[in-house]
Amino acid sequence: MTATQETVKHQRTLSGKVVSDKMNKTVVVMVERRVKHPVLGKVIMRSARYKAHDEANQYKMGDSVEISECRPISRDKAWRVTRLIEASREI
Predict the structure, then answer these.
(1) How confident is the prediction along the chain (91 residues), in pLDDT tens digits per residue?
(2) I want to staple 70 with a disulfide (CB 3.0 to 4.6 A). Which of 8, 14, 80, 85 is the partner?
(3) How far apart are the C-alpha atoms of 50 and 38, rounded to whole Å?
């Protein structure tokens, strides 16, 4: 690799639903994935909650968003909301 070539850093991206927007500039995003059980072979749902940075406080509960990995912003926060996939339906 020469000095003129730049290394491209691939960031992980996940998509999920906003489950909490009570913090300032932070949303909690629940990401669900389907995993095959190692013994039974049945497909089960696993979920994980990630705190993501939302600079403008624009994402609300129920929104489907995409988050990407970034440098640590705080002790728990190392993800950033990159885009809105689908807005929640308000009744």
Answers:
(1) 566 666 667 789 999 999 999 999 999 999 999 999 999 999 999 999 999 999 999 999 999 999 999 999 999 999 999 999 999 987 6
(2) 80
(3) 25
Distances (CA, A) of 14 to 3, 24, 33, 41: 32, 22, 10, 25
Closest C-alpha among 70, 69, 63, 68 to residue 89:
63
Backbone angles phi, psi at 6, to 5 degrees: -105, 145
Best CA proximity match to 31, nearest among 73, 69, 75, 57: 69
Note the pLDDT of residue 89. 86
Tell me the HSE value of 35 on the side-chain side, using a 13 A CA sphere: 10
Q: Tokens 């991206």 correspond to what residue?
A: 13
What domains are defined for the chain? 13-86 (2.40.50.140)
